[in-house]
Design a protein that fits this description.
300 residues, alpha+beta, seven-stranded mixed beta sheet, two-stranded antiparallel sheet, 34% helix, globular, microtubule binding, Kinesin-like_fam
Length: 300
């Protein structure tokens, strides 16, 4: 995690994704206990980023940082802004510079750790949850909290460089077996939508792990895979956290989770610093101008 977080401060995109069946602890892993300020990957990462910024600015007073945050969920193949509870579903667009992105998201300026926690707590309060036979607090949507980290640095007497780091925390809804959950009504529809999107995610992971990146990878078959496309074989660093249950009754789903986690380790991303094109051209004239490197999706 520290490697990913430091990379975000250097202008790279990074993604942390919790994957596994329902009730295996994905939301607990990402958010910790009920209060986001206690434990969890998100809280620890946010604290680390602010501390790292403090250390970096002490060493280099020519560099400044600004942070913003957004939070949305993918529910029944529609995107909802968790910071605007009453708004209609958001449109997803594609362009050359940003790829697939959500239009009209509320993005909140964050000057302190508490500001980020307020964003996450508000989003967590508004996300869709339900109860079934396998999980009394089951997530009914895929949730993505994004932290945008912009850095401005002066290169001596040279130009000002602006880099756009980004960190995605992806809390996936869990795969479910209808025979075990006994879902009905709206929850039955939700289960179908969740399982279809996870099936597409599995297809994308399998295709990329087999080296089929140059062939047709089915990103467009699901809203989820569209919006994390950069994290799967793209220009982002990534980490998948495989959450599994010790229960013998779900061993088949545990094996499935471990299979896709193993496949994800074979995916190769080529991360690059995100900056304006004119700044990219300027930077190549400096000794530290190497802009790309190759990382496995999950580094050991």
């Amino acid at each position: 995690m520290r490697k990913l977080l430091d990379s975000v401060l250097d202008g790279y995109s990074s993604t942390v994704m919790a994957y596994g069946q329902t009730g295996s602890g994905k939301t607990y892993t990402m958010c910790g206990r009920q209060e986001i300020t206690e434990g969890g990957v998100i809280a620890r990462s946010v604290r680390y980023i602010f501390e790292a910024i403090r250390r970096r600015t002490v060493l280099d007073d020519q560099k400044t940082y600004s942070l913003r945050a957004s939070y949305f969920e993918i529910y029944n193949e529609q995107v909802h802004d968790l910071l605007r509870e009453e708004c209609s579903p958001r449109e997803v667009r594609w362009n050359q510079s940003d790829g697939f992105h959500v239009e009209g998201l509320l993005v909140v300026d964050c000057e302190t750790v508490e500001d980020v926690f307020a964003v996450v707590n508000e989003g967590a309060k508004n996300r869709k949850v339900g109860s079934h036979n396998q999980n009394k607090d089951s997530s009914r949507s895929h949730c993505i909290m994004t932290l945008y980290v912009d850095s401005i640095s002066s290169m001596g007497d040279g130009p000002i460089l602006l880099r756009h780091g980004r960190l995605l925390f992806v809390d996936l809804a869990g795969s479910e077996r209808l025979k075990k959950t006994k879902s009905s009504g709206d929850m039955l529809k939700e289960t179908g939508s969740i399982n279809r999107s996870l099936f597409t995610l599995g297809k994308v992971i399998s295709a990329l792990s087999e080296g089929k990146k140059e062939e047709i990878v089915p990103y467009r078959e699901s809203m989820l895979t569209k919006l994390i496309m950069e994290s799967l074989g793209g220009s982002s660093l990534g980490l998948m956290i495989a959450c599994v249950s010790p229960a013998t009754t779900v061993v088949d789903q545990t094996l499935s989770t471990l299979h896709y986690a193993t496949c994800a380790k074979q995916i190769v991303n080529i991360p690059s610093v995100k900056m304006d094109e004119k700044d990219r051209v300027r930077m190549t004239s400096f000794p530290t101008g190497k802009l790309t490197d190759v990382f496995m999706f999950r580094r050991s």
